[in-house]
Design brief:
It is a single chain. The protein has 15 helices and 21 strands. By secondary structure, it is an alpha/beta fold. The two termini are 27 Å apart. The structure holds cytidine-5'-triphosphate. Cytidine-5'-triphosphate binds next to α13 and β16.
C-alpha cells in the first residue's frame, strides 16, 4: 500500500458482518502512513465498536451527522472535501441503493455526495440480494457515475450459503485504493495544453458571433491533467467558470487569438487537447465603431469568412511526439465523423460526442462520448464530465508512454 502514505483516506463502514475485516484494513492503511478517518453507520457500530477503530486510527470515529465536533465548519461535508479517496466497505445492499439515489441522510451518504475524490465501493451481502435486479441496477448507476465498485467474491457466506456476496479480499481493496491515489502522477513532468469554451468573433465593439459551449469539458480536462501531475496551460474563450487552481489560464476571445496562444506553447507541449468549440467563421470586417440602426436600415447582413483551422495549424507545427486530441460534436453519427477527422487531420485521438443524446453535451454536467483512435473505438457510458476527463487523461498518459 505504497501510495496511501501521507494521504487522507475516508473509510466509510456500513452494517455487515464483514465490518471486522475493516479493522485490519484501517490498521494497514495507518501503517502505510495514511490519515484514516473512519465513518460508521449506526448499524456498523452494532458489529464492531467505534472504540476499536479509534484506537487504531488515533482519530475519533464519526457516526452521527450533526454531532460532529466541527459542525460550525460545515463538518458534514468537510470530510468528503478533505478526502483523497473515499472507500465504502463493506457496502450493504441498502447502502448501495441509498448511494445510487444520492441520499444525504447520514454521514456516509453525505460524505460520498460531497466528495470530488475517487469513490470506491466494496459490496458484501447475501447472494440473492447481490444478484437481485434492483441491486445490480444500483451498481450500474454507481459505475456510470465513475464509482469504482469492486465485485464481491464467491465463497461461504455468513448465512451458511455458498455463492457470490463475500467482501472482496483486503488485497483487492488495497489495490483499488492504490490505483485511485496513484493514478495521480501519470503525467508528471509533462506539459499539457488544453483549450476550452467558445470563441467570440466580434462584429463591432458591442456585437459578436459565438456558440453555446460552456467550457465545462475543457476545464474538467485541465483539472484532471493537473491531478495527474502535469503542468497545465488552459487557453480559454469566455466562460462563466472559475479556472481550476494550479493551472495557468490564458483568456482569449477570437479563434485567431486562440491559435496564436496555442501555437506559442507548441515548442514545449507534450499534448494539445482541443476541447474548445472554435467558431468556424468570423465577420469579414470588424468595425471599430458601433454599427447604428439608422445606417443599417431594417436588415443587417454580416459577411463571414472562414477561421483558421487550429488543429491543422497545430499538427503542422507540432514537434514530433506531441499528442494532438480533437473533439467532434455531432448531432448524427459522431464516431464515423470522428474517424474521418482522425485520418484527415492526422490526429492521435478524437473524442466523439453526441450533442443531442439526452443528458449529454453542451452545458450539461454529463457527457456520452467515444474515444476514436488508430486503436479503434472505445464507447463510454454517460458519465460526469470530470470522469470523462479522468479517462481521457489516462488514455493520454498511455499514449505518451509508448
Ligand atoms: N477546431 C479547430 N479549428 C477550427 C474549428 C474547430 O481546431 N477553426 C477544432 C475544435 O477545437 C475541435 C474540433 O476542431 O477539436 C471540432 O471539429 P468540428 O468543428 O466538429 O469539425 P468540422 O470538421 O469543422 O465539422 P463541421 O464541418 O461539422 O463543423
Amino acid at each position: 500500500m505504497s501510495r496511501a502514505g501521507g494521504r487522507f483516506v475516508v473509510l466509510a463502514v456500513t452494517g455487515s458482518i464483514a465490518v471486522y475485516k475493516m479493522v485490519e484494513l484501517s490498521r494497514r492503511l495507518v501503517q502505510a502512513g495514511a490519515t484514516v478517518q473512519v465513518v460508521m453507520t449506526k448499524s456498523a457500530a452494532e458489529f464492531v465498536t467505534p472504540l476499536t477503530f479509534q484506537a487504531l486510527t488515533h482519530r475519533p470515529v464519526e457516526i452521527e451527522m450533526f454531532a460532529m465536533q466541527d459542525e460550525r465548519a460545515a463538518g458534514h461535508v468537510a470530510m468528503g472535501r478533505q478526502a483523497d479517496v473515499v472507500v465504502v466497505a463493506p457496502a450493504t445492499a441498502h447502502v448501495l441503493a441509498r448511494l445510487a439515489h444520492g441520499f444525504s441522510d447520514d454521514l456516509v451518504a453525505t460524505t460520498v455526495l460531497a466528495t470530488s475524490a475517487p469513490v470506491i465501493v466494496a459490496p458484501a451481502m447475501e447472494t440473492h440480494m447481490w444478484q437481485n435486479a434492483a441491486t445490480q441496477a444500483n451498481v450500474s448507476a454507481l459505475r456510470a457515475r465513475g464509482v469504482l465498485v469492486i465485485d464481491p467474491e464467491t465463497g461461504p457466506l455468513a448465512s451458511g450459503d455458498i455463492g457470490p456476496g463475500r467482501l472482496a479480499s483486503l488485497e483487492r481493496i488495497e489495490a483499488a485504493i492504490d490505483e485511485a491515489l496513484g493514478g495521480s502522477q501519470v503525467l508528471a513532468g509533462r506539459l499539457v495544453v488544453v483549450t476550452a469554451g467558445p470563441t467570440l468573433e466580434a462584429i463591432d465593439p458591442v456585437r459578436f458571433v459565438s456558440n453555446r459551449s460552456s467550457g465545462k469539458m475543457g476545464y474538467a480536462i485541465a483539472a484532471a491533467a493537473r491531478d495527474a501531475g502535469a503542468e497545465v496551460i488552459l487557453i480559454t474563450g469566455p466562460t462563466a467558470l472559475v479556472p481550476p487552481a494550479g493551472v495557468r489560464t490564458f483568456p482569449v476571445e477570437s479563434a485567431d487569438d486562440m491559435k496564436d496562444a496555442v501555437v506559442a506553447q507548441l515548442p514545449r507541449a507534450d499534448a494539445v487537447i482541443m476541447a474548445a468549440a472554435v467558431a468556424d467563421y468570423r465577420p469579414v470586417e470588424r468595425v471599430t465603431t458601433k454599427l447604428k440602426k439608422k445606417d443599417l436600415g431594417n436588415e443587417m447582413t454580416v459577411r463571414m469568412t472562414e477561421n483558421p483551422d487550429l488543429l491543422k495549424a497545430i499538427v503542422a507545427a507540432r514537434r514530433p511526439g506531441t499528442v494532438v486530441v480533437g473533439f467532434k460534436a455531432e448531432t448524427g453519427d459522431a464516431t464515423s465523423e470522428a474517424g474521418r477527422m482522425l485520418r484527415d487531420k492526422q490526429l492521435d485521438l478524437v473524442v466523439a460526442n453526441d450533442v443531442v443524446s439526452p443528458g449529454s453535451g453542451f452545458g450539461s454536467d454529463d457527457d456520452q462520448v467515444a474515444f476514436v483512435s488508430a486503436d479503434g473505438i472505445e464507447t463510454l457510458p454517460l458519465l460526469k464530465k470530470s470522469e470523462v476527463a479522468r479517462r481521457l487523461v489516462a488514455k493520454l498518459a498511455e499514449r505518451l508512454a509508448r
